[in-house]
Every structure is written in C-alpha cells, then in structure tokens.
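Tokens in:
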C-alpha cells in the first residue's frame, strides 16, 4: 500500500524574522514550524494506527499544548510527579508515566494521575502492586507496563544510550519474571536517540527474539522515544510500514512517545552581544550562558548552528560555512557566567560584531528549555512564540523571584 506524502503548511522564512524586535535573551518558538512538525506526526499517527504522545523530557512548553491538541496529540509521557501533574493540568489528555524508580511518598499521587504506568523493574512492580490492585478495585482504570531492555542500541553517545552496558533502565531477558506478569498488560522499551526508522526495525527484530513469547499476553507495546520523524530525509513510509506490521502480527496497540520530533527545528535562542574582547583571539560575550541555557552543548557535546555564521577553516569539513563567512571575522562565542568553559566555540561572521548585535542559535527548543538553570543568577531567557501570522508574543519572563524560589 502506497502512503501519500502529507500536505505541509508553509513556514515563516527566516530572512523575514525581525530579530531586533525580539527582546533578548529569549527562547522563541515558531508556531508555523511547530505546525509543520505536527502535520507530519499526525500523518504518521493516522496512517500507522499508532498513538503518538509527547515526551515532556524533550518538549514541555505548555503554552503550545493547545496547538498540539489541534493535531490529535492525545496525551503525554511524564517521568516524575511534577511532569504528571503538568500533563493532567495543561495537556489535558492521557497521562503516561515512567520513571526509573518511584518513591513511597509520591507513588499514591502518581497512581491517581496516571492512565498508563510503567515500572522499570519487577521489584518496583511487586512493591507497589497492592496499591495498584486497591485502586483498580475502587474503579481506577490504569494500564500497567514493564520496561524491558532488549540489550541492543545504535546510539553513539554513552550519555544518551538507554541500552548501553550495565544500563539501569529496563529489565533484561535474563531478569524477566514471567510469574509476576499478572496485572501487567503492556511492555515498554526505549533504545533510540534521534534515529531513523531502519534502526527501529532492527530493534524490533531483537525485541521479538528476546521477548516475543510474552507479546501474545500484551494489549499494548510502547516503542518509547527517539523517533526523529520530523527530520528532513527521515523514512516515514518505512516507519508506517513497520508499525502496521507489528500491530497486525501481535494484535497490540502501539504507542510512540518522541520528544525531539515535536520541537525539532521549531525555534531559536536569541541573544545579544554585550562585549567584544580582543586577546589572542577575538571573543564575543553574549547575554546567554552555555552552561545555564544550552547545557547539551557541553554534555553531548555538540556544536550548535548560529544563523548567518560559519565554521573556521579547520572545521569546514563538518559543515559548510555561511554565505559570505569565508575569510570573514572569527570570534569565540561565550556566555556571561564565571565558568571558564562557558564557551560555545569559534564562529566566522561576514562582518565585525558590535555591542547590541543579535546572535541567533538555531534549533533550540527541544531538550534545551527543559534543562536550563539559574546558575550564577544570570538572567534567564524569556519564552516567546512567533505566531503564524508573524506577530511575536512573550509568554513568560523570569526575574529575581524565580531565581530566589530555587534557593532557600
């Protein structure tokens, strides 16, 4: 069966954005680009029959949740009590919860909120099963799952590899407890990180080999996240085909819970130059911090793209320089905290940077806002939305009270 390409809405051209009109610093979500991603996600959901929910660990900008609901996103996956509350209060759909471990203090509230509740181990399931059984007897409908570890992954960075050696996440086949499956109606796995559908297909082959004997007893299987279906070049027909085949083979519902796919290429971090210093190399100091506002740059690590800037000659083989940047002006781009390593890297601009110039980091919505801190008390960027019609709306500003509230 041939799957037609979805009709995608137009996006606002970057060259038409008036960066100077956006107060700095700010995380800026582009509604038009979010809607394009949601159109693709809705297409996959409709064609494959899977349920696709949003993973809050990657995208939890709740001011955008009304837009998500327009495209049939029926729920969210949470990794804590706080995220579960946010899902119930703001997403207003199904609440799926998974955490590596639940505490005695928080579990009753999590159970009250959850529609799907996944345990990381059979010991946790055995510990909390009496509470689940009591809630079900009182009329609570909750689907219980066990996270499994297929012991197979194609993730290059150990920090983001859920199935790496000695992983604490999920039950391996060797530790699987068939005698404790009563009351469990689903399995969950998560081994992908920004991967294409061919990786999912190979992962499912291993999952079936290791856990296939238990699948006939299940009503649903959660494929976890890491499905970067909104990235250009992603093989959507294969994804749809793989999901359909799995659903039909095992007669189960399939759930996907990507995070990056929702926020992928949907916005920017807008910053301004506060000072330019001239030591051995020129350095531009911005009103944002790498460690406080872009921690993945240091953790992953990775090199973000700056609009209108290119790479120095020694890095040109990794990415083409920006138009006009070759032979231009090089700057070390850094933040304003006292951390010596609060530096993004060296970039080439086609003109000299001046105090007040905007420096715009690309693709800064997914897995960025969710990790920010108030380190050093530096100003936290606003959160804003560039509306589909072109208007800009500030939806959140941060001040002293937010900084103080994190301390005691």
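Residues out:
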């Amino acid at each position: 069966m041939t799957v037609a390409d979805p009709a995608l809405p137009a996006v606002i051209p970057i060259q038409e954005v008036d960066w100077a009109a956006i107060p700095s610093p700010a995380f800026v979500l582009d509604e038009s680009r979010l809607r394009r991603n949601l159109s693709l996600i809705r297409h996959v959901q409709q064609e494959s029959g899977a349920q696709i929910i949003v993973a809050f660990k990657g995208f939890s900008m709740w001011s955008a949740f009304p837009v998500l609901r327009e495209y049939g996103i029926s729920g969210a996956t949470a990794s804590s009590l706080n995220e579960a509350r946010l899902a119930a209060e703001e997403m207003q759909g199904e609440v799926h919860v998974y955490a590596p471990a639940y505490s005695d203090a928080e579990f009753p509230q999590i159970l009250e909120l959850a529609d799907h509740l996944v345990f990381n181990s059979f010991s946790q399931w055995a510990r909390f099963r009496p509470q689940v059984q009591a809630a079900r007897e009182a009329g609570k409908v909750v689907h219980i799952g066990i996270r499994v570890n297929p012991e197979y992954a194609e993730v290059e960075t150990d920090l983001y590899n859920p199935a790496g050696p000695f992983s604490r996440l999920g039950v391996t086949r060797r530790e699987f407890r068939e005698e404790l499956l009563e009351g469990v109606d689903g399995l969950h796995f998560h081994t992908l990180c920004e991967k294409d559908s061919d990786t999912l297909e190979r992962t499912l082959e291993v999952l079936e080999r290791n856990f296939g004997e238990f699948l006939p007893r299940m009503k649903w299987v959660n494929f976890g996240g890491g499905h970067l279906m909104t990235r250009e070049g992603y093989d959507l027909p294969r994804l749809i085909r793989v999901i359909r085949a799995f659903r039909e083979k095992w007669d189960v519902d399939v759930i996907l819970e990507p995070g990056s796919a929702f926020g992928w290429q949907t916005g920017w971090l807008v910053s301004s130059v506060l000072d330019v210093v001239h030591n051995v190399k020129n350095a531009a100091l911005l009103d944002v911090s790498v460690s406080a506002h872009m921690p993945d740059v240091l953790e992953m690590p990775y090199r973000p793209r700056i609009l209108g800037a290119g790479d120095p000659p020694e890095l040109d083989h990794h990415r083409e320089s920006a138009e006009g940047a070759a032979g231009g002006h090089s700057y070390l781009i850094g933040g304003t905290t006292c951390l010596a390593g609060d530096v993004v890297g060296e970039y080439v601009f086609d003109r000299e940077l001046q105090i007040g110039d905007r420096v715009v980091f690309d693709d800064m919505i997914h897995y960025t806002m969710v990790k920010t801190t108030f380190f050093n008390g530096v100003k936290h960027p606003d959160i804003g939305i560039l509306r589909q019609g072109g208007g800009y709306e500030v939806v959140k500003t941060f001040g002293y009270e937010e900084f103080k509230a994190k301390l005691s």
